UniProtKB/TrEMBL annotation:
It comes from the Bacteria. Residues 24-317 form the Amidohydrolase-related domain. Pfam families: Amidohydro_2 (PF04909). GO terms for molecular function: hydrolase activity. Signal peptide: none annotated. Keywords: Hydrolase. It comes from Caballeronia udeis. Belongs to the metallo-dependent hydrolases superfamily. The lineage of its organism: Bacteria, Pseudomonadati, Pseudomonadota, Betaproteobacteria, Burkholderiales. This is TIM-barrel fold metal-dependent hydrolase.
């Protein structure tokens, strides 16, 4: 498999043709709702969601479902993100993903669920150390709407919460990276986290959630992103940039992607699908084709880095 992937990368570098481009999908989900409990996908009423009505994704989504959607693109490896599995059993999803990998070869790495401010955090991290599939963990810190955010924000469960930070401090010894999903106006707290714990790699999910596409909103997002980019231990996933009630398009999302790459640099960014969640606003083929068109003017080596090499290196694939 690895030899075939290496040859695919070499073929792309020679041709420069996006049709030959191997892809590592650095952020997606699998779930089996017939067997496993994801509260937000199974319980009624449905929770408020940034894309609006998400009933369409409240169904099983397994590797065979994913790969039925990816043609004509060459997704060669994937990184599965925790899907808000039953919080009473944080490691259960990683055990399930391990059996999934044994059955079909996917996912090739994953981010496990953790609760940094819970008493079981040390035990959960210890168990993940014995699971080769797990490379990182995610715990969404408490966040508030931009209108309610202040410079001194430090709510329980937030990135300035002493208990939350005590759990975060254990990550360096665990060797696991941290997946940060939070709106960009909380990036000041994220900068503090990155600087206070330089031994932990932070991987920003969904480009910092730039949902406000007003001139002022995008300007503030760029400023926050640039501040966080000043921390050498931070990487950026270009994913999850859809808008509520708006079909995903290059015209709407190209400027966000170009700014993100300019701010973080090609070497610290990677593309990802966030499927099946982003299927609410876009088809997988359209998404990957759109990402490819956005960076068509870059050199082949840079495109290979964004779609494949950066994620391969970061997640040890």
């Amino acid at each position: 498999m690895s030899t075939a992937i290496d040859l695919m990368g070499e073929r792309f570098l020679q041709s420069g043709d996006n049709a030959d481009l191997p892809i590592v999908d650095a952020h997606h989900h699998f779930w089996d709702l017939q067997r496993n409990y994801h509260p937000w996908l199974r319980d009624l009423p449905r929770i408020p969601f940034r894309y609006g009505d998400y009933e369409a994704i409240c169904r099983d989504f397994l590797p065979e479902d994913y790969f039925a959607l990816d043609a004509p693109h060459h997704v060669v490896k994937t990184v599965m993100m925790e899907g808000e599995w039953d919080p009473r059993d944080p490691v259960g999803e990683a055990h399930w993903a391990t059996t999934l990998n044994a059955r079909c070869g996917f996912p090739n790495a994953m981010a496990g669920q953790v609760w940094l401010d819970r008493d079981d955090v040390a035990d959960v991290l210890h168990e993940y150390k014995s699971m080769p599939l797990v490379r990182s963990v995610r715990h969404k810190p408490v966040a508030v709407p931009r209108s309610e955010h202040t410079a001194t924000f430090a709510a329980p469960g937030s990135m300035r919460c002493d208990r939350w930070r005590a759990g975060y401090a254990l990550l360096a010894a665990s060797g696991l990276m941290f997946e940060l999903q939070t709106p960009w106006w909380h990036f000041t707290e994220a900068v503090e986290l990155a600087r206070d714990f330089p031994g932990v790699t932070i991987i920003v999910n969904h480009t910092g959630l730039p949902a406000d596409r007003s001139v002022e909103g995008l300007r503030a997002w760029r400023t926050a992103l640039a501040e966080l980019a000043g921390c050498a231990n931070v990487r950026l996933k270009i994913s999850g940039i859809g808008e509520r009630g708006v079909r995903w398009s290059v015209e709407r999302n190209g400027p966000v992607v170009w700014d993100a790459i300019e701010i973080f640099g090609v070497e610290r960014c990677m593309f990802a699908s966030n499927f099946p969640v982003d299927s609410v606003v876009v088809k997988l083929d359209t998404l990957f084709a759109g990402f490819k068109s956005m960076v068509a003017d870059l050199k082949p080596l840079q495109r290979l880095a964004l779609f494949h090499d950066n994620a391969t290196t970061l997640y040890g694939l």
